[in-house]
Amino acid sequence: MEAEDILRLDREHVWHPYAAVPSGVPAAVPSHVPVHAVRAARGVRLTLADGREVVDGMSSWWAAIHGYNHPRLNQAIRDQLDDMAHVMFGGLTHEPAVRLARMLVELTGLDRVFLADSGSVAVEVAIKMALQYAAATGHPGRTRLFTVRGGYHGDTFGAMAACDPVNGMHHLFSGVLPSHVFGPVPPARYDEAYLAELSSLVAAHADELAAIIVEPIVQGAGGMRFYHPAYLRRLRELADEHGILLIADEIATGFGRTGELFGCDHAGIRPDIMCLGKALTGGYLTLAATLCTAPVADAIGVLMHGPTFMGNPLATAVAGASLGLLGERPWREEVKRIEAGLLDGLAPAAGHPGVRDVRVLGAIGVIEMVDPVNVAKIQDIVMRQGVWLRPFGHLIYTMPPYACTPDDITTITKAMVTAATSG
User: Fold this and answer.
1) Cβ pair 264, 218 in contact under 8 A
2) Containing H/E element for 224?
3) Torsion of CA 81, 82, 85, 90, to 10 degrees
4) Does 68 belong to an annotated binding site?
5) What is the pLDDT of residues 43-87, one digit of tens each?
6) Is 60 one of the annotated binding-site residues?
7) Residues designated as active site
8) What's this model's pTM, rounded to 2 decimal places?
9) Within the chain, how many helices (H) and strands (E) appear?
10) Burial readout 315-332 (b: 16 or more C-beta within 10 A, e: otherwise)
C-alpha cells in the first residue's frame, strides 16, 4: 500500500491510544496530532512509509531496548514457531515459559512467576495477590492500597485506581474506582519531613491496607519524576512494620533503564510482589509477569486469574532470548554512556525561560516545560531533525534503545533542545 492509502484507511477505521475518533480530523484543527505510517524498523531507526528515516527516541514506549530486527531475537521466534505458536497454559506447560520463569527468579530473587498479557494486567494480578493474601492471613478488612501521587500503573480498572486521582489521566472514572490512600509526590531530594509523613500516613491506615504499591525511583507516565532511594527503603520498612505487602511496579524501570537492573536495586530492597513488562520481550511481543515470594504464594493458594494467552510460547521464547542477550551485552556501560550523552546534550536547555527543569537518570532524559507542550508542533520539529519522540503533558523526553550510539544520542538531544527552545 502507498503511504497515503495507509493513512486514509487509518483515518477511517483505527482508534489510536489517547486520541479521539476519527483520528483524521483536519490538520487545521490546533489539537490535531498527525499519525505517521511506519514501513520498517531496523537497529534504532524507523523507516516511514513516505521514505523518511528517524531515530526512535522512545524505544516503542520503552520496550525495544535492543533496537529492532535483532537477528538473535528474530531467530528465537522463528525457531519457536516451528514447534508451536500457542498452547493453553491451564493444565499444560512448555519449555520457553519454564525457562523464562527460572531466569526471572534468578534475576529478581523472588520465587513464583505468574505470566500475564500486559503491564496493566500484571498490576491487576498483583492487586489480586495482595487482597487474597490479606484475606488468607486473617485480615479481610485490608482492602485498600497505599501509594503516592504522581504515579501511573496502567489503564485497566484496578490499575487506574492506583494512579494519581487528581493529576492523572483517569479523572473521568474517579467516581467508580476504588478509593485508595495517597501520599504526596515524592521529592527528588532527601527530606526527613517527607519520610515522617509517609510513616504517619501508613500507620494511620495500616488496618485497612493490603499493600503499598509504587514505581521504584522513577515515576513514569505520571510525570517522569525521579525520587530519592531513601523513600523506597522507608516504604519497605513500613510494610514490614505493619505486616503489609510491598508491590514494586517495575514495568517501566526494569531491565536496566535506570542504570540498575531494577529500580529497587537503587535502594537495596526486595519487594514482596514485582510487576514486569515492556522490555521483557525486547519490544517484540506483549508479555508481562507478576512475581512474588514463596510465603505470599503459599498463603494465597489458588490465584483466581487466567489469561487466555498466558505463557504464550512465542512471547516467552523471545523474552528468554532477550534476557539472555541483556545478560551478555555490557548494558551497564551502555546505559552509563547514554546517561552521559543525555546530561551533556540536554544541558543547553536548562535555564531557558520556557524550561522548568532538565533531568537525567540512566537512559531517561527529560526536559520539563513551564507550559503544556504542543505535541504536533514538537513532533514536527524533531522529525525534521530525524528523531521520533512522543511528548506529553509538560514533557519532552526520551528513553532510547541501549543500542544507540553516541551520535544517535547527540541527534536525539539536539532535536529535544531545539524543540524546547524554539518558542
Assistant:
1) no
2) none
3) -130
4) no
5) 999 999 999 999 999 999 999 999 999 999 999 999 999 999 999
6) no
7) 18, 152, 249, 278
8) 0.96
9) 13, 16
10) bbbbbbbbbebbeeeebe
